[in-house]
Amino acid sequence: MKKALITGVTGQDGAYLAELLIKKGYIVYGLKRRASTFNTKRIDHLFVKNRGDETNFHYAYTDMTETTSLVRLLKEIEPDEIYNLAAQSHVKVSFDTPEYTANADGLGVLRILESIRLLGLEKKTKFYQASTSELYGKVRETPQNENTPFYPRSPYAVAKIYGYWITVNYREAYNLFSCNGILFNHESPIRGETFVTRKITRAAANIALGLQKKLLLGNLNAKRDWGHAKDYVKAMWLMLQQDKPEDFVIATGITTSVREFAVKSFGYVGINLVFLGEGEEERGIVDHIDHERYERRIGKKFAHIRKGDVLIEVDPFYYRPTEVDLLLGDPTKAREKLGWEPKYNVEMLVDEMMDSDLKMMQKEDYLKKGGFEITPQIEDIM
Ligand code: NAP
Ligand code: GDD
Predict the structure, then answer these.
(1) pLDDT by residue (tens digit) across 199-219?
(2) Is the CB of 89 under 6 A from ligand 1?
(3) Is 269 helix (H, G, I), strand (E, B) or coil?
(4) What is the mean pLDDT of residues 162-186?
(5) pLDDT number for residue 50
(6) DSSP H helices in the chain
(7) In this structure, what DSSP letter does residue 104 have?
(8) 307 or 382, which is more confident?
(9) What's the pLDDT at 377?
(10) Does 156 participate in catalysis according to the annotation?
(11) How far is ligand 2, taken at its centre, from the CA of residue 82, in Å?
(12) What's the CA gap between 273 and 143, in Å, rounded?
């Protein structure tokens, strides 16, 4: 059985990748950092399904800012494949914590690569680095491919540039099987709540249920090439199954603005928005309600929102000191060499996220009103 080590296993991609690799018959070692509250919500089901002596999912504590525990774990596990997904992954937060972000997201990559070398695992261990479309930043050409020059626009992207180049350098200098996946934005129902897609789908669900009045957003004009994390973790695995290590752009080839993403999300529950005004004065206003759709999605008659209600406002708090205006990836190389194609488009992504958030909000509201927690098994039977 192949052994895979995943850093950042508690994150969105870590959880999907762990699930994929377990299904493929790997023994998976997930690395997580200590937190003062539970941080394993996304992977708890993997422990339950594989409980007992036969478990093929293990975890251990480490931190990307500490070399010693990384070396010790690599020595103990001697993994066939390492997927380095751990990072301070929030672009806006990186402006507040630039030094920490450089340490975890930049030097963290070096720590793993050096550990591989130190332990003489160069011939055995393949390495995947979670690189990002943020490297393109202030884009030099559109769409962006593997040859497009980089122009990072945040401490996060600058840290990730180091991770990108050190991965290339160790490949060229020491013959390591190390490659970069240059992944464009990918989302899912388990996306972190402060990334814009999940912030929008949670708010649209809450507003439709009458649990929230307004959504405050930053730059509505930003455009992103949004795919589904499930498709993207498959690409990570494919990259490590090739005969030689290479870097790949993973993207859908379609870009959508934050504003359009909001229109699609609210549209899912029958609330049709129109945007009026400009800059900080722009507002997302109810244009009309599709009552039949609302009733179908929410399960009750529509009551609390009227045409003309303002549901979205701009709050400059969410602006970034330097912004990435447009990302659009060209995944031709991945299609031709990896045989990779995304199954999801942005509409399917919105539908799945909205559906999941509606269920979650209904459950949270039920609990808040004095309901009791029911186990997933019981819920399934009901
Ligand atoms: P995520 O949900 O934010 O997960 C990040 C993971 O890294 C979490 O498990 C987090 O632990 C862990 N982590 C953070 N700092 C750490 C540290 N100092 N030591 C150890 N672990 C640490 O991110 P994601 O969306 O899954 O993304 C996975 C990777 O792909 C990241 O490197 C990200 O930068 C990169 N990427 C993401 C996208 C995207 O659109 N999702 C696109 C391109 C590249 P906690 O759970 O304890 O916070
Ligand atoms: N988070 C957030 N919150 N973003 C907002 C908001 C808001 O209220 N309003 C507008 N935006 C805009 C941001 O300014 C940005 O242009 C865009 O929405 C997307 O922001 P995020 O969802 O935070 O993602 P990101 O593109 O900055 O970074 C994500 O994708 C990268 C790949 O391109 C992260 O997952 C990174 O880790 C990843 O590398």
Answers:
(1) 999 999 999 999 999 999 999
(2) yes
(3) coil
(4) 98
(5) 54
(6) 12-23, 44-49, 67-77, 91-96, 98-101, 108-118, 155-174, 196-208, 229-240, 258-268, 291-298, 332-333, 346-368, 376-381
(7) I
(8) 307
(9) 45
(10) yes
(11) 26
(12) 29
